[in-house]
Amino acid sequence: MIVVLKPNISKEQESSVLSEIEKLGYKPHVMRGVERTVIGAIGDERTHKTLESLLTWKQVESVMPIQKRYKLVSREAHTKDSYVKVRQHFIGNKKFHVMAGPCSVESESQLMKTAEAVSKAGATILRGGAFKPRTSPYEFQGLGEKGLKLLAKAREETGMPIITELLSENHADMVAEYSDILQIGARNAQNFQLLIAAAKTGKPILLKRGMSMRIEEWLLAGEYVLSNNNPNLMFCERGIRTFETYTRNTLDLSVIPIIKQESHCPVVIDPSQGSGRSDLVTAMCKGAVAMGADALLIEVHPNPIEAWSDGTQQVSLDTFSRLVEEIRPFVEAAGRE
Amino acid sequence: MIVVLKPNISKEQESSVLSEIEKLGYKPHVMRGVERTVIGAIGDERTHKTLESLLTWKQVESVMPIQKRYKLVSREAHTKDSYVKVRQHFIGNKKFHVMAGPCSVESESQLMKTAEAVSKAGATILRGGAFKPRTSPYEFQGLGEKGLKLLAKAREETGMPIITELLSENHADMVAEYSDILQIGARNAQNFQLLIAAAKTGKPILLKRGMSMRIEEWLLAGEYVLSNNNPNLMFCERGIRTFETYTRNTLDLSVIPIIKQESHCPVVIDPSQGSGRSDLVTAMCKGAVAMGADALLIEVHPNPIEAWSDGTQQVSLDTFSRLVEEIRPFVEAAGRE
Amino acid sequence: MIVVLKPNISKEQESSVLSEIEKLGYKPHVMRGVERTVIGAIGDERTHKTLESLLTWKQVESVMPIQKRYKLVSREAHTKDSYVKVRQHFIGNKKFHVMAGPCSVESESQLMKTAEAVSKAGATILRGGAFKPRTSPYEFQGLGEKGLKLLAKAREETGMPIITELLSENHADMVAEYSDILQIGARNAQNFQLLIAAAKTGKPILLKRGMSMRIEEWLLAGEYVLSNNNPNLMFCERGIRTFETYTRNTLDLSVIPIIKQESHCPVVIDPSQGSGRSDLVTAMCKGAVAMGADALLIEVHPNPIEAWSDGTQQVSLDTFSRLVEEIRPFVEAAGRE
Amino acid sequence: MIVVLKPNISKEQESSVLSEIEKLGYKPHVMRGVERTVIGAIGDERTHKTLESLLTWKQVESVMPIQKRYKLVSREAHTKDSYVKVRQHFIGNKKFHVMAGPCSVESESQLMKTAEAVSKAGATILRGGAFKPRTSPYEFQGLGEKGLKLLAKAREETGMPIITELLSENHADMVAEYSDILQIGARNAQNFQLLIAAAKTGKPILLKRGMSMRIEEWLLAGEYVLSNNNPNLMFCERGIRTFETYTRNTLDLSVIPIIKQESHCPVVIDPSQGSGRSDLVTAMCKGAVAMGADALLIEVHPNPIEAWSDGTQQVSLDTFSRLVEEIRPFVEAAGRE
Q: Residue C289 contacts by C-beta under 8 Å, 6 or more apart in sequence?
């Protein structure tokens, strides 16, 4: 840690800081600068108590950590790209993946129709919500276990592994029984109890970025998964909350090169939540592919206008199949398959 | 709902919108404006499917809801101020309350020392974290049930009711057994399963605002509590996430008059989380009191510099007792006791 | 405009709203909904006074405009893509452009070396700051007219048209004398006097998005240019301000399809300002190209580490020439030259 | 500056950083930590080039400045509170001031009526816009010099000094001729040429915070005024842009204690722009007073509903006079007059 002292403080004020640093287990190292004195406090920041509380003392101007707070998700821990095995597929390898399906599972016919269409168009993994986190208690909350059963049936018929959201610690085992990937949604991205419960199932986890989560916090949420002995983690950007109101969220595609730099885990982009508007989805997908995403997660519905949730961001079956064609040249330009 | 059509669309495009509106159960009402045609779709927006999905059609420019989405928390549902009974106290009445105590319960001596000091200074409710949601898995996660027991003991000794955070659905009954108020933290403000579990205990709920939660979303999260038959709800502002980095969060005091206007529930302000800096806490408290808050929630520690969590935002026992003195004239100016 | 009345208001309260609407020149049209009465106020919102002030009346719940506020920049005004002629080049046509050069013009040798290198690598337009808007008055403020002369000289030697920032109304004529494109920076994006002065020179204008400008506001700032009889406008995204601190700004690539949808003007992406980190620039460029940008604006310096301004975001000559090679397949995949 | 090196780099990589630090005029000081090597670079950061560009080198992980970038506005430069003399008044002294008047000057009768009413109610300074920065070019742009003349006339009749916004460098002398305080608006808060022109008139400057300006940037914009030999500076908070849409802006009252801590200049709060809703203005004023603001800036109109600009945020004459009565007990509680 670096501790910066205020200018013009007394000798006593300085030495009380030095003693406290030593008391907390660090070795202080004093540097006298032009206007301020700076103390390097040497010691492992992950095992020692933080010195940031020194800020409550009047003679301290700022305290800056030096070490990165995440460890297992970091590039330093694992210099090669890691990949996640999902049944017959590997996400994070050379092959590019498209996960597609309805926002919510609504009925057998809606799901099967969508599953067949997206599979035919080129999707490799089927998405569908059975438990839905809804802003209002009066909105459709999902079919629950019945939805999971329909997903499992769709997997059987199309061969596509499935991904669905886990909402409750109490459902972790049940959802893990049916689903191949557990999705942790944006609203639960710092619901650490849920992250731990999900990690413990051993299933691959797709961790969405919270609406106002800094990248460091997102990586640390991922650290909860890896430190609970589950290495099968993917990060999924789905748009952050900003002042802009034209789109529902602002899709932050810069996370692709950033996560690739800081971490070894695969990166997935969700352009549906990311924009909240189906007319922007195709362009977003092209950008994501070009910037190096490992997979896309796209909401598709046979009739978006009558969808039971988030109709504005779901694309129709036709649009989806055109989309897959349109991104193909970019997948190739990115050197993927 | 109001549906605005794009200019220069065909008759067929218009009539297909009208049919769809009728199909979804609304009665359309056409108005021809200067450049655009606007359709009023009459019907209960809380029981009918939203028309927002119409946006996926090329001829539709915008769709605007008319009704408020929240109901039980709204002023319309309950025109008088509601109050919450917490043992011998009523929050939301004329009497102003101060909830104070350590960020985390660390030990019996730390807690007792703090409890006695804050009680003596004028606090009426004791706060203390037993389960702590920490950004990193390597940080102190709280004493768990042992912490709850210490809180109960402190209540016995000081007579102050206690408030502590609920982190996990699985702990709802256990925490409710010890605590007088269940706090739902910012990171779980849209963890709807946790809100439901908390509501079902029947205990008073203090619902913090999520870091990037719009006021409408916050009220709707509160609606999850009331619609699960628990009327004992308080809203607590603890700072929102903005671009500013000087403070940890930006405390949005404007929510006090806004929540008072939109809802009947009491409003509590947390200036400790709200700024992340103990040197700003007193000024924040004065503003909160003047603007009409019903209570404050303040982190106090006997030795902030050695606190096991969030030391930078905890005030010392001395500072706390000065703070209570300093806000007194503002409590009076606000017509409270 | 749509005016929504509160529930349970008196007949008098309603009729006073109706009279005021008529007084302000609109024709009111009443619709009785399930819980609320809604009034459609028919009239041209761009020539009549706004009704939003009705919100100050207790019986009014909300007021919503219907028309778009921008006109000349809109797709409705000009359904085909427009392009901007810059000497021998057309921006907005099939040919993709790269504008490159140093953040600040520092010296003749620095500029010439950069100009030759970027021209050789494939850039078609030379950028360079002569007047620099600096956060602190103690930072390098640019070479001023001397910098403009160096830019003109570099144009002569390389044949590349030049783009440079205009900071002051008083410099509009001087900068227009030397430069082929006038750049309006993010900090001045709503400095309307500067926009008008720039528009009046008749030169092409590159209008950067302000740090926290909504898309509608950006389009309206562009409207200041077109309504001052200058049709040569390009919009340039350079990152918005969010809560994220990993990057200096958050580059919002979604504006590419959005501006293309709402407006006919060309879209340029600045990945240097957009991320503030040279190691992210190449990936950002790929995304921008894939999503349909018309041009890139990239900061390049022979020795970024010793740059007089913004060294962290400038790429070296080598990196730039690799970057041009790396984006080439994406330019082709996007169907551009 | 503090330069943190990445772990596991070579001796050569380290020594090239050390040489570059020396080359740029700093004295390097090496500290070996647990995982990383940290270099303290000793030298005056305000006169030397920044080392932040070192980030473009692969072996450098982060670079952190130590010194504050502002100087003349800082508490270190001037430990006592400074005050600004405006004709017969002093802002920043014990006496609390209320600046009030219409958003725009619309006519002689509108201005005189307002001026008399606010003066009678207790306002001490008259505000009114003659040049208006409007988001759209089709909105009312102010009466210009005619408005200034009306303001001067109102000053003559009521004895209140006047404050009005300066929009253009070219108007600096003209506006300074009529007005007692020059207001720099949020959209021009980093229009440094305008700040310099305003400073040079020698008149008191009220500098509004830009919509997404960090506190450090605001102080540095103020530094442009003081470093151009004009010590008469006031900072005015008027709300920042966040994700919240209930209010037009989010009024950040925490700046009051923060600016008081970092700077010696007076702090003014504008609750009208700050919320954009007249029904929140009174509560905001109470908070501002309690937290230690030196003055308020409030928009008042005889008939807000027919105001030519920003009617939703202007209070009526009656509301204003009640507001002054309601804040009086808080002014007293804050120890002001």
A: A290, C96, C296, C327, C330, C331, C334, C336
